[in-house]
Amino acid sequence: AHSVYSMVHAAIGGRRGLAPLHDASSLDRTFSKGRKGRPLAILVLDEMDTLVSRKQKVLYDLFEWTTKENSRMAIIGIANTMDLPERVLPRIASRLGLNRIIFAPYTSA
């Protein structure tokens, strides 16, 4: 799950090849000290339910960065389970702006 930090860091123009925890620190600085003129970073997390772990640190960090003043980050989360908001820790759930869009299962029509 920590590789998410490296993927996000590289996607916003960070140096490649850094350790995931170094990338996490760099992302924290970037989104905690946001500049008003910086472009909005929209992170699409597909299969977000795979990031649910015991401590849920990665999910917490990602959603925490969206709450920082001038962070310029938004998250669109996609999950295969309907109960994801109920499965995350309360400290993460409090940061979710929840709009559920339910799609029908795939069919071979």
Automatic annotation (TrEMBL):
Annotated Gene3D superfamilies: P-loop containing nucleotide triphosphate hydrolases
Keywords assigned: ATP-binding, DNA replication, DNA-binding, Nucleotide-binding, Nucleus
Residues covered by the ATPase AAA-type core domain: 23-95
Pfam families: AAA
Signal peptide: none
Subcellular compartments: Nucleus
InterPro entries: ATPase_AAA_core, ORC1/CDC6, P-loop_NTPase
Annotated family: Belongs to the ORC1 family.
Protein name: Origin recognition complex subunit 1
Organism in which the protein naturally occurs: Rhodosorus marinus
